[in-house]
Design goal:
13 strands; 3 domains; alpha/beta; 23 helices; about 50% helix; 6-stranded mixed beta sheet; about 10% strand; Rossmann fold; 5-stranded parallel beta sheet; single chain
Amino acid sequence: MASPTLICDTEPWKELRAHVEDINKTHLRDLMNDTSRCQSMMMDFDGILLDYSRQRATTGTLNKLFNLAEAARVKEKINRMFNGERINSTENRSVLHVALRAPRDAVINSDGKNVVPEVWQVLDKIRDFSERVRSGAWVGATGKTLKDVVAIGIGGSFLGPLFVHTALQTEAEAIECARGRQLRFLANVDPIDVARNITGLNPETTLVVVVSKTFTTAETMLNARTLREWISSALGPQAVAKHMVAVSTNLKLVEQFGIDPNNAFAFWDWVGGRYSVCSAVGVLPLSLQYGFPIVEKFLKGASSVDQHFYSAPFEKNVPVLLGLLSVWNVSFLGYSARAILPYSQALEKFAPHIQQVSMESNGKGVSIDGVPLPYETGEIDFGEPGTNGQHSFYQLIHQGRVIPCDFIGVVKSQQPVYLKDEVVSNHDELMSNFFAQPDALAYGKTPEQLQKENVAEHLVSHKTFSGNRPSLSILLPSLNAYNIGQLLAIYEHRVAVQGFVWGINSFDQWGVELGKSLASQVRKQLHASRKKGESVEGFNFSTKTLITTYLEASADVPSDPSTLLPKI
């Protein structure tokens, strides 16, 4: 049987490889002087303006990328995803996070069954439960209103919901809806994270949401048992059913844990963890904090982009354009990283979330058919809100290695500030930097310009900026729940497009398994050494030395400790 064709063996790929030589002869200073080119590289959709004119690309580059997308059958793969086909072939699953935010009357099938009614059944259950908790109809074991929520989950069960929560915290309508309430996220198994999350909380007014599809995730379940103990020690074991609920599909283990199965909220195998923020994973804790109507606007924003991604021609398709340009930067221009730079403090948790969405999805070394790849996939994602990042890592971006940048700006601030006699408002000051930085990266500054400014000769090379550093700009009209949903979906689909072109499975994550497996061996060793005094065996010299040093230095830990909870 002939081995499957890799995308790098196709003519469009080879044409793009040859095209790099042409691009290397140009500079963004010159490309930006072509007004018609710049106009063709700006587009708007549903209030969002995308400007990718500062990419090291011509209209010819784009045409070659569209040919590459055709060779990779990207449109066919998008259709297969929306049709519920099992495109996650290594786990034999559909990929239907788009169904999580589909309108109630939509039809999206998985295995011949429309899943949208099931989705809305869970959403309606969340709406009802969150309204009961928020109104005080559902109270804790001592009759007090549950005004504080701790959501326990890790990875996709944490990063996405935290991003949305952080983005909504300072939005005017969301503030009103959340008044008097708190939402915290417990992810790390580090006891310090437990301590920080329960500090200042009263078990009587706290509701804990345990998020684990299988109810077996090691870190999540240890944290869940810890908070169960915190509640039980203060209110008695019978209080658990009133103060803990679950997002899980394993109703048997939920019940064994002490949570009423009626208070378990389902999600499905066709929802990957990093794509699950629009499921009960995110919708339940966010609805408890802000109310379901706010969260529904977030879902509608994501759904708007879903429909755009599915139906718009590639030349006017925001996620497709972004995905193809990322492939161009990574696979042809050789840029291995990407900076996500939101000029909004409310988006401070956006880059960490996209870091997982992107790097867990596309950090693969074999094709979807298991063939080792002769090219790199994925990029190293990092970021920080502007202008903080400017005083941190922009030095490297401007004068060190080339890192393509995503600048994300917002027209209307969530919290405008105006001071009498100031030259500009605080938000205008922020946006001045948003508009300036892409041009600084694109144009740079030449030795000739510096000499005209009478810069000392020995400093000219130090103050020279090469420019020709690619970026793109995304301008949002505001940052409300709807816009946050739009932004999320744009990046989710962008990542999928990259994976579709590279011919990989962007929806599995086998790379996270090995470390967890080895950790279980260490866990058994620590138990045997603590409880039975057994020496450390079965590890290489380095690991054995580290574990032995750790055990010796923490010998004061009792072998059979009584329960101890954090005290801050």
